[in-house]
Amino acid sequence: MSDRYEIRLQGHLGSRWAARFAPMTLTRLADGSTRLEGPVVDQAALHGLLGALRDLGLPLISVHRSQQ
Amino acid sequence: MAGSLVETKFYLPRVRRGLIARERLAERLDRGAESPLTLVSAPAGFGKTTMLAGWLAPADKRVAWVSLEETERQPASFWTYLISALQRVVPGVGAGALPLLQAARPPIEALLTTVINELGAGPDDVHLVLDDYHLADGPDIEAGMAFLLAHLPPQVHLVISTRADPALPLARLRARGELVEIRAADLRFTRGEVTAYLQGLDLAVSDIAVLESRTEGWIAALQLVALSMRGREDVAGFIAGFAGDDRYIVDYLVGEVLDRQPADVREFLIATCVLDRLTGPLCDEVTGRPEGKAMLEVLDRGNLFVVSLDGNRRWYRYHHLFADVLLTRLADEQPEEIPELHRRAAGWYERNGEPAPAIRHALAAGDVERAAGLVELAIPALRQDRQEATIRGWLDAIPDEVVRVRPVLAIGFIGALMAGNEFADVERRLGEVSRVLAGDRASMVVVDENELARLPAAIEMYYAAFALMRGDAAAVAGHARQAIDRAAPGDHVIRAAASALLGLSLWGGGDLEAAHRAYSASVDGLRRAGHLSDVLGCSITLADIRITQGRLDEALRTYEQALLLGPELRGNADMHVGISGIAVERNDLTAAAEHLRRAEELGEHTWLPQNPYRWRVASAALRQAHGDLDGARELLHEAQRVYVGDFSPNVRPVPAMIARVLAAQGRVGEALAWAREQGLTAGDELSYRREFEHITLAKVLLASSASPDADRLLARLLAAAVAGGRTGSVIEILVLQAGRRGDLVALERALTLAEPQGYVRAFAGVEPALLRRLARQQPTWGYVRRLLDGSGSGAVKLVDPLSERELDVLRLLRSDLDGPAIARELTVSLNTLRTHTKNIYAKLGVNSRRGAVRRAAELALFH
Question: What is the C-alpha to C-alpha distance for residues B70 and A57, in angstroms, rounded to an integer?
């Protein structure tokens, strides 16, 4: 069973990035940050996702495992 | 591996004109010259590579540069690139280490030790730069890197550039002041640097402040800012819009830059961003327009996203950051185009004979059927180059149901799994292929028709290999025989492989004659298939068997015939090492030394992975024959460090050889400790596999005066060796028995077996007195006389033999006793002792006590 994660990034990611990070949903927040939220299969997938964000040079604000 | 290095990975990127000189960073880097490690750790687009390239560009610096990629997560690939890069600036370094990397389990620390020692001997400073280290970093290379770092000689500076801190003991290095770090905060452009960078744009101080604050000195963004302002009328409007926008900065700026490009440039960028590497013809294929080369040069001149990979304007890549953004735009704007672009790239690579990128693009196009076909066609060549790990990597990308109907592909994957020691799924997969093969031909998909005919035999061969892994010798033999029977006419490779498996199981079981027959069949098949290096590898096994059987002439012939296969073959050096061993046994020490030298001179490309260890074992035997037992032991310890196994059973383990030397030196305690460690006892059940160790144990027990145990063990060993036809072992055992009991019958039996094959060293341990008794009994036996003279094949000879009394004196000269003490020991006057020593020196042709001891050892007079 996969966990859900919420990842906050500095800066607004345009909607064209939604497909890239599917099945995470992408929300732009008023404080200028972006929230990625959704299921992550396992720890390896999570680290792969964080690596992809790193490679875009997107500053990471927080990572939370969401409460269900 | 060595044949397939990607040249562009060694390319130190050239520095663009107009680069901002960053003195503050250069000074920090220069300080790194005193630290073993310089770490440049920052996210993408911070100018790490550019900074390092600028700093290292001056011609007087010796730079070994590697641009790592994900393929270097495999240790063999990582270390091969690292050592090859070093070789470009320090010729010859790591020559002995590279062949070891071909082994299934390379001894990383041992091979790094030799590289480190070789680097330490060099006079000049070397900068070893590992760029994009995050792509390779992982548990598989971590330990080796920590070892390298801990033992780095002072003239070597390691520079790591990475997006994530490496798994190295950074805190410890920091605490010791052994780490120079340059991080994102240092790389950010300062106000002054931003001003210098944007100089030509005629901006107000306040504009520069806004841009610095919005980009936070991130050069990737500043570069895009400069590009998007080029020729713009409303600079103030652009800056205001940029500063007031929260969008992901690269996305925003790439949009700005793209909007300002001519349509053809824009379309080119969007279409080719699916490519990992760019070159004119490939771009033409993907875009469908014949202007790729010119377009790449436009991008290069305009500093638009591309990085040159080779300095001669042939290969480029996009900066990863921009490629990501471009790709996302492509996915958003024309998602339906993406598979087609990948399909075209796959086609280009396929036509240009580069299966790996062709397969990657076919998979990215979602065309698994095509990818499967390409993998199927690529397997034979990769298998021959022992790149099974590459094949294995594609297994997860191709769905099971696609593999299932493709028996040729399925067998290829099975081979790759087994080569990587992944056995869990092998039996199920073999069963599946057998079932598909038994079914209707129409239900199968086969691209490589030639391979299909090989499958019935190949399946049996893999079953045999699987049984070998499980240790089921009977099943190995059964399946191997089936494979040989079913091999298609002309399929020499399968017949050779199955014969070798059969030989292996027979050898391990001690049936040497049958094993030799099977290996000979294997060699025959390999020769017909043109796999000459494998012929040489098998020749070692054939010769080993003959040596164990006491047939030195045939062993020698095996090596010599193998050498006739051609010059410059991998394995030629190993043949010379083998010949040296036989020469030592025949006491032709000059020839032995000559063959070892030859093996070394031939160079690493003629070495099998086992050569570094075999060469040291043979050198140790030569040293021992010269009486230098400490030197021999030292070489054997080195041999153990660089030991790599192959498929053959390790019937002469190096630790046992070390124990033999220890026993000969009277260091019985250490030799007994070896026996305990190996769990060897005199009462063990005997097998051919452990015969060498058990004979060693007998020697050790004899040296430790545990003689009754040794006697019983020797008697049992003799019976087993006789029954197994292992005459070489029989001779060795008889010699030990003769020495133990003063048994002339045993000695005579050994000599009778040994004489036709010219053995000499086998009798080095026999007391001369015993040989002399035999010589008196049989005065016409020339062989015994020759052994007594120590003349062997004429290598060393004493014209005027020493008397018994002189031999007594000689033995005491070897001790720590001084002259008066020796005289007391022998109950003679000091003058008489002096006369004896003078005579000894004259007969040995030396003029010192040390010289006499050394010469006597060479002549084996102490035995």
Answer: 19
Q: Which amino acid is at B788?
A: L
In this prediction, residue A1 carries a pLDDT of: 60
Question: Which helix (H) or strand (E) is B222 found in, with range?
Answer: helix B219-229
Higher per-residue pLDDT: B281 or B832? B281
3-state class (DSSP) for residue B321: helix
| pLDDT band at residue B791 using 50, 70 and 90 as cut-offs | very low
CA distances from A54 to B133, B167, B534, B655 (A): 14, 17, 46, 50
Average pLDDT over residues B205-229: 91
- Candidates B73, B246, B250, B325: best to mutate against A (most CBs of A within 10 A) is B246
Contacts of B404 (CB under 8 A, 6+ apart): B410, B432, B436
ipTM above 0.90, yes or no: no
CB nearest to A57's CB, from B43, B247, B328: B43
Question: Can you give the pLDDT at residue A16?
Answer: 87
Cross-strand partners of B160:
B39, B130
Average model confidence (pLDDT) across chain B: 89
Arithmetic mean of pLDDT, B690-708: 91
Cα distance from N-terminal residue to C-terminal residue, chain B: 48
Which of A11, A19, A55 is facing B248, going by the closest CB pair?
A11
DSSP H or E run through A27:
strand A25-28
Give the model's pLDDT for residue B547: 96
Rounded-to-integer distance, Cα B441 and Cα B451, Å? 14
Which parts of B677-754 are beta strand (E)? none
* Complete DSSP assignment for B581-635: HHHHHTT-HHHHHHHHHHHHHH-GGG--TTHHHHHHHHHHHHHHHTT-HHHHHHH
Can you give the pLDDT at residue B792? 39
Q: pLDDT value at position B799?
A: 52
| Residues on chain A touching B331 (C-beta within 8 angstroms) | 16, 19-20
Q: Is the pLDDT of residue B769 over 70?
A: yes
Residue B248 has its nearest CB partner, among A19, A55, A58, at A58
> Considering only CB atoms, which residues of chain A are within 8 Å of chain B?
11-14, 16-17, 19-20, 28, 32, 34, 51, 54-58
Q: Is the pLDDT of residue B321 over 90?
A: no
Q: What are phi and psi of A64, to 5 degrees?
A: -130, 145
Query: CB-CB: which of B44, B248, B324 is closest to A14?
Result: B248
- DSSP helix/strand/coil, B385: coil
Short-list B365, B335, B368, CA closest to B348: B365
Determine if the peptide bond prior to B609 is cis (ω within 30°). Answer: no
Q: Could you tell me the end-to-end alpha-carbon distance of chain A, in angstroms, rounded to an integer?
A: 12
Check residue B259 and give left, alpha or beta (phi > 0: left; psi -120 to 50: alpha).
alpha
Q: Which of A8, A17, A61 to mutate to test the interface with B (most CBs of B within 10 A)?
A: A17
Asked if A11's CB is within 8 angstroms of B324's CB, the reply is: no
* B331 → closest Cβ in A19, A55, A58: A19
Segment B103-120 shows an average pLDDT of: 84
How does residue B795 score in pLDDT terms, banded at 50, 70 and 90? very low
B730-764 per-residue burial string, b: 16 or more CB within 10 A, e: under 16: bbbbbbbbbbeeeeeebbbbbbebbeebbbbbbbb
Q: What DSSP line would sit under B92-115, residue for residue?
A: TTTTTHHHHTTSSS--HHHHHHHH
**Residue written as token pair 């290996």:** B519
Q: Rounded to 5 degrees, what are φ and ψ at B511?
A: -90, 85
Cβ contact, residue pair A11, B247, below 8 Å: yes
Question: Å from A66 to nearest chain B CA?
Answer: 24
Contact B220 A17 (CB under 8 A): no
Ranges in chain A, pLDDT < 50 = none
A14–B45 C-beta distance less than 8 A: no
